[in-house]
Amino acid sequence: MWLLDTFLKSAIKRGHLIVTNHDGTTLQYGAPENGVQPLRIRLTHRKAANHIARYPQVGAGEAFMWGWLEVEEPHDIRDLVLFVTRNAKREAGASLKPKGPLRKAAQKLLAKADSVNLRGKARKNAEHTYNLTRELYERFLDEDRQYTMAYYREDPETTSLEKAQLDKKAHLAAKMYIKPGQRLLDIGCGWGGFALYLARHYDVEVMGVALAPDQIAFCKERAEEAGLADRVKFALMDYRDVQGTFDRISSVGLLEHVGTPHYPQFYEHTNRLLKADGVMISHCCGRAGPPGFTDKWTRKYIFPGGYIPALSELVTQSEKHGWQVMDVEAMRFHYSHTLKEWYKRTVLHRREITELYDERFYRMWLFYLAGAEQSFRHGDMVNWQIQYVKDREAIPMTREYIEAESARLRAADEGKVPRWHLDPALREAAE
Questions:
Q1: Are 85 and 169 within one domain?
Q2: Is residue 35 domain-shared with residue 159, that is, in the same domain?
């Protein structure tokens, strides 16, 4: 316990933390705050304290997953993660980063190797994350199953996740500057929501590609149900295998999975696919600071092969392959509000999720959502929306067209914001 005790004494400067070890020993950190209940955690296994202290990047997450670390009510793991990140000197999790030049170099090397996503590995990685049961994602995503940042134009406390996701799609579509009769490509199409949105709002043909079989099967089902199967096609395909030409390309939540060694290939191939007067929009998680590396726990349990890029990495590589960056928007804090809602919906469906998988999986998912939320709230994580062209004449000279088109799209959906069918309020009303 002494190693964890030493760490917590130096790390906890704000708030009051009480730790009860497996043998009943109780230690306190920080200082009591008027009117604020202390955060209490209990270590239930004799190896828990040492595991957390010796392996800081994975230890806390694994201890919680395995039931070695319990957060006592009225608090939960989200409160603990928030507490730790508030006490970090820099970005979320800074105090848990590997210490010393050799450890840092080793982590960077391992992360770099993990980001090499050849076709076979890329498909395996996608299936690891996105081929989990539909029922899981249904339990916490919005009604359209958007597994990316929602866009909170209005107060996040009063705006539904469904409304914020609809506004995100309008914002993205407006930046694509779409014209009737065009052919669109949606790379990493997920469960098909954005592709179907584009087809509903524009007289266009859309092709969506992804690597998770269940996602594509679901996309096709949705297209048939919506009566759009003649204009929206979905394929289980690596984007590197797509052929032909397109007027517009979108990639939403894709670049995080491409891997830095493959950025040249991504930009070279998409440049080849896009017509000379085309537009490409990319929406991805990003670092507001310099390049870094993905933490070990996330690589191991959530996004194998994933990496969140710095803006400099994306711009440098795109410039080398014929792209011109016309618009960049840093979406601050929106993802933290999105993740907060995903967390609430996950907790709401604890019983169903543990029945689908088990308690360990449920705990893993909670830790992932809580940690991600704090990275976007208190760390250096943002979302990048980047607009690329091959010819500067492809878009209007000023940005007014973006807000004007976004407003038009939002007006078209006025009164059509879906309600989450698992909303407890709807259930109560029905009963």
A1: no
A2: no
Domain with 90, as residue range(s), is 2-96
Q: What residues have CB less than 8 Å from 4, skipping those under 6 apart?
A: 19, 49, 50, 52, 53
Token pair 């009164």 in the structure block, residue: 415
* Segment holding 246, helix H or strand E: strand 246-252
- Report d(CA 144, CA 299) in Å as an integer: 27
**Calpha distance 282→92 (Å, rounded):** 25
**pLDDT tens digits, one per residue of 45-66:** 999 999 999 887 799 999 999 9
- CB atoms near residue 358 (< 10 Å): 11
Please give the mean pLDDT across all residues of the chain. Answer: 90
Pairing of strands 205-210, 183-187: parallel
Number of domains in the chain: 2
Residue 256 sits in the same domain as residue 394:
yes
pTM above 0.85, yes or no: yes
Which pair of structure tokens corresponds to residue 137?
């994602």
| Residue given tokens 């239930």 in the structure block | 44
CATH of the domain at 224: 3.40.50.150
